[in-house]
Write a structure and sequence with these properties.
Family (chain A): Belongs to the ABC transporter superfamily.
GO molecular function (chain A): ATP binding; ATP hydrolysis activity
Strand order of the largest sheet of chain B: 6-7-8-3-9-10-12-11
CATH topology of the largest domain in chain B: Rossmann fold
CATH superfamily of the largest domain in chain A: P-loop containing nucleotide triphosphate hydrolases
Oligomer: heterodimer
Main location (chain A): membrane
Subcellular location (chain A): Cell membrane
GO cellular component, one term (chain A): plasma membrane
CATH superfamily of the largest domain in chain B: P-loop containing nucleotide triphosphate hydrolases
Order of helices and strands of chain A: EEEHEEHEHHHHHEHEHEEHHHEEH
Number of strands of chain A: 12
CATH class of the largest domain in chain B: Alpha Beta
Shape of chain B: globular
Radius of gyration of chain B: 21 Å
Order of helices and strands of chain B: HEEEHEEHEHHHHEHEHEEHHHEE
CATH architecture of the largest domain in chain A: 3-Layer(aba) Sandwich
CATH class of the largest domain in chain A: Alpha Beta
Number of helices of chain B: 12
Largest interface: A-B, 49 and 41 residues
Structural class of chain B: alpha/beta
Structural class of chain A: alpha/beta
């Protein structure tokens, strides 16, 4: 079966005064219909640049798309003209941003911002678009939709603004929804509401979602597959269960170890990842994580490892998975009953 | 003379409470006839050597409480008792000495460091204000502090923009430590940091607590981290304390419906447990300018009864050391 979205060997650089930043390096992944794929990584890992490239939001210059292809329903998005791309984006791909305050137009009532896309891309009349917008406001769980239609973003709370953004993104029934840290700016109880809403809508409409987040809890609760990015590269990818129970990259181990266990009875010392994220101006010749990696070997600084296949759809870019590599005793304790005892000792 | 005064304060202390807050109120008049009751009649005590976690969503008043405690804001009413003395009643000079023992670490390491000052001078601000060291001694103290928080002596000459978020937070911690405080309010110290860096800063704070004999008020909205670092936890909502207990009880048997919803809202990092039932609160928190009558949580509470609108629930010790304000108990 053809994938809904297929990204192959994507390379994106940025020209700056300090030199060329390699923001995205050799990223390849796919998203199928109705699937939720999470991209996890820290600031500067390239996760946002990756999806912004898919949406054609990278300004060129300073951005340079060095190579790769982005196939959406068989069309290469990178080869489309601006006008053609806008058509695809408007009707088939929706996007939600992190900060709903800066992504809504403060001088335009919220309802009009929802109706705008319907008029442009679905050729609805003004009245029909208004009726549909009110329906959408209701669907995303905002009370008093008729009254809310005519209000400005500043009259909405943070959670409601994010709901309005979701309504805009879903207005044209997109095939793919890209959500860039949709709940990071929200309080936990509001985050729970918004995640629940996204899940419900996804089940109703069977829209595929790319969810960008740094919160592993959000990943575990919503995604089917996960991509872990570090220093502009994909270091590990696989199903949620594989990633959480059988991770094979030291960076993934580090991420899982540096979050406290809410359910655990006693306090364990957190195991942080020492050091700071890599300098993307002159990325190391070898693995970008090697300088912070406890298990780094000589080869790690010399040569970038390839993607080792761990299981079906589970890949890790780490030399430790080579058959010549030594066995390492990492402190990661998978959440399986028999393994907990071993892990807590380490 | 300074030392004597401090001894005096120390001797007057009778129990193990380092900081005590009694009926503290902090109101802000934002417009004519509009008052926000950010902290409304809160009484808590923070014990010597403990980490007291303070949790709440935006607008709950947790940061205001922290800032009022260390004297960055004057309370509208109520007492802040440090080491047995009401800080709000002290004369200016003694107050300055007490303030030296209470320091604060801020959330945003980008906004809380002066971009035009060198790191060494930022750290030494307290040292200079209290005239603790001069010249070579001052310099050595700066180097010592930098190394204490995991930075290097040569960093003293640099400017804040040359550092990453985690490193800046370490600078903020060094600045707080410079005057040898006993009590530190950490106001969301890790919220702006990446996950892998958060654990570094938390471990540093825990190390320092042991080595420098500190007491913390740790303010956060990340419940996982609060549980990890705190001995006791207080939960705030719209200016009121809703529940208070030790950290394990709070997570295993939360009493207040708000705490229950808050805990249930944390995304679990176990993909197999993800399909659980979650308490999802309806609606948004009400505006702090016009809080609901009676219990402030009643408009979103799944268990609200008639009495909740009429009467504010009393602050009650439902189980030993486990307090809550809810009509269910």
């Amino acid at each position: 079966m053809d994938h809904l979205l297929e990204v192959n060997n994507l390379e994106v650089n940025f020209k700056t005064y300090g030199g060329e930043v390699k923001a995205v390096r050799d990223v390849s992944f796919h998203v199928d219909k109705g699937e939720v794929v999470a991209i996890v990584g820290e600031s500067g890992s390239g996760k946002s640049v990756t999806v912004q490239t898919i949406m054609g939001l990278i300004p060129t210059p300073p951005g340079i798309i060095k190579g790769g292809t982005i196939q959406f329903q068989g069309q290469d998005l990178l080869s489309l003209s601006k006008k053609e791309l806008r058509k695809v984006k408007g009707s088939k791909i929706g996007m939600i941003f992190q900060d709903p305050m800066t992504s809504l137009n403060p001088t335009m009532v919220v309802g009009k911002q929802i109706a705008e896309g319907l008029i442009t891309h679905q050729n609805l009349s003004k009245q029909a678009a208004k009726a549909r917008a009110i329906e959408l406001i209701k669907q995303v769980g905002i009370p008093n939709p008729e009254e809310r239609y005519g209000q400005y973003p500043h009259e909405f709370s943070g959670g409601m603004r994010q709901r309005a953004m979701i309504a805009i993104a879903l207005a044209c029934n997109p095939e793919l929804l890209i959500a860039d840290e949709p709940t990071t700016a929200l309080d936990v109880t509001i985050q729970a509401q918004v995640l629940e809403l996204m899940k419900d809508l996804q089940e109703q409409t069977n829209t595929a979602i790319i969810l960008i987040t740094h919160d592993l809890g959000v990943v575990a609760e919503t995604a089917q597959r996960v991509i872990v990015m570090y220093g502009g590269m994909m270091v590990e990818s696989g199903t949620v269960l594989e990633l959480f129970e059988n991770p094979k990259h030291p960076y993934t181990w580090g991420l899982l170890n540096s979050i406290p266990d809410v359910d655990g009875p006693e306090k364990k010392q957190l195991v942080p990842i020492e050091g700071s994220p890599p300098d993307l101006f002159s990325p190391p010749k070898g693995c970008p994580f090697a300088p912070r990696c406890k298990f780094a070997m000589d080869i790690c600084v010399e040569e970038m490892p390839g993607a080792y296949e761990i299981g079906e759809g589970h890949h890790a870019k780490c030399w430790l998975n080579d058959e010549r590599a030594p066995e390492v005793d990492h402190a990661f304790a998978p959440k399986k009953k028999e393994a907990v005892a071993v892990g807590s000792e380490a | 003379m300074m030392v004597e005064k401090l001894m005096e304060i120390g001797n007057s202390q009778l129990d193990d409470n380092l900081v005590e807050v009694r009926s503290l109120k902090k109101y802000f008049d934002i417009k004519k006839d509009v008052t926000v009751k950010s902290v409304d009649d809160i009484s808590i005590s923070i014990r010597k050597g403990e980490t007291f976690g303070l949790v709440g969503e935006s607008g709950s008043g947790k940061s205001t409480l922290g800032k009022t405690l260390v004297g960055l804001q004057a309370p509208t009413a109520g007492e802040v008792i440090y080491n047995g003395q009401d800080v709000t009643q002290l004369d200016k000079e003694t107050k300055k000495l007490v303030n030296k023992e209470m320091q604060i670490i801020f959330q945003d390491p980008h906004a809380s460091l002066n971009p035009r000052m060198r790191v060494g001078d930022i750290i030494a601000e307290g040292i200079d204000a209290y005239k603790l060291f001069k010249g070579k001694e001052r310099e050595n103290r700066i180097y010592e502090l930098l190394e204490r928080v995991g930075l290097r002596a040569e960093h003293a000459k640099r400017f804040p923009h040359e550092f990453s978020g985690g490193q800046r937070q370490r600078i903020g911690i060094a600045r707080a430590l410079a005057v040898e405080p006993k009590f530190i309010v950490a106001d969301e110290p890790i919220s702006a940091l990446d996950v892998s860096i958060q654990a570094q800063v938390i471990n540093l704070l825990e190390d320092l607590k042991d080595s420098e004999d500190l007491t913390y008020l740790f303010i956060a909205h990340d419940l996982g981290m609060v549980k990890h670092i705190s001995d006791r936890i207080g939960v705030m909502y719209l200016g009121k304390m809703m529940e208070l207990s030790n950290s394990d009880d709070m997570f295993t048997k939360p009493l207040h419906p708000y705490t229950q919803a808050l805990l249930s809202a944390i995304p679990k990092t176990d993909p197999r447990a993800a399909k659980r039932e979650r308490i999802v609160l309806a609606g948004d928190p009400p505006s702090p300018t016009n809080p609901p009558s009676g219990c402030r949580f009643r408009t979103r509470c799944p268990h609200a009864m008639a009495i909740c609108a009429e009467q504010a629930p009393p602050w009650k010790e439902v189980e030993p050391e486990h307090w809550t304000a809810c009509h269910l108990y």
